[in-house]
Amino acid sequence: MVKLIVGLKGTGKTKTLIELVNKAAAESKGAVICIEKGSKLNYDITHKARLIDTDSFMVTDAQALYGFIAGITASNHDITDIFVDSALKICGDDMAAFATFVKEVDKLSSIAGYTCVMTVSAAIEDCMENLREYL
Description:
It is a single chain. It is built from four helices and five strands, in the order E-H-E-E-H-E-H-H-E. It has helices spanning 13-27, 62-75, 87-90, 95-112, and strands at residues 2-7, 31-36, 50-53, 79-84, 115-121. The protein has a five-stranded parallel beta sheet. The N and C termini lie close together (12 Å). The model has no long low-confidence stretch (mean pLDDT 95).
């Protein structure tokens, strides 16, 4: 299952994501993963969640991010939650590629049995029609 937190810059998306990550890490019986661009969340995310910086692994587009998440999924069978901050930015701000990526992650997360929450810096009306079901 995929859920998108969409809004323009400064609307509190990352703050909401931080709260969700920390809550999931406190309640989860498995692994909680938080993926970010850069290292701005180091002091906000509990040590119980695995925090990964995509810049360290040269993830720069939607296809690379999907492969990255698929690799994490394949290497860890007890993931309960994956969170991605600035997902559209990690995908190179390519909305069409991002929409395809979201559909693929939705299928992957359904098969693997975890929830994936992503923040998207964009106006809701700028989201493609096929992304509306994830809002």
